[in-house]
Structure formats: C-alpha cells, structure tokens
Amino acid sequence: MTTLLLILGIILVIAGVVGLVRGQMLWGIILIVLGLILAPGSQLL
Questions:
Q1: What letter does residue 41 receive in the DSSP assignment?
Q2: What is the pTM of this model?
C-alpha cells in the first residue's frame, strides 16, 4: 500500500509540474499539493 501511495504521489506531482508549464496554474498547484499529501513520507497528515 505504501508503494502504491508513493507512486500515485509522484505521478500527481509530475502532472502538477506539467500543468504549471502548460500555463494551468490552479490545477498545477492543486495536483502538486495532493501529491505531497499522498506521499507516505509526508509530514502533512
């Protein structure tokens, strides 16, 4: 389960960075924050 959450968090962060590069600021920031929250090593939870 931890590995799945880590992979999902990484995918969300990458998608957020791609969104920022493409000019979609709001979606990019939301995806990056969600990716950081989902990562198992995150201290946000």
A1: T
A2: 0.80
Contacts of 28 (CB under 8 A, 6+ apart): 16, 17, 18, 19, 20, 21, 22
Q: In what helix (H) or strand (E) does residue 19 lie, and over which residues does it extend?
A: helix 2-21
The label of the residue with tokens 């920031």 reads: 29
> CA-to-CA distance for 22 and 26, rounded, in angstroms?
11
* pLDDT at residue 7, rounded to an integer: 87
The SS3 call for residue 43 is coil
Reported confidence tier of residue 30, pLDDT bands at 50, 70, 90: very high
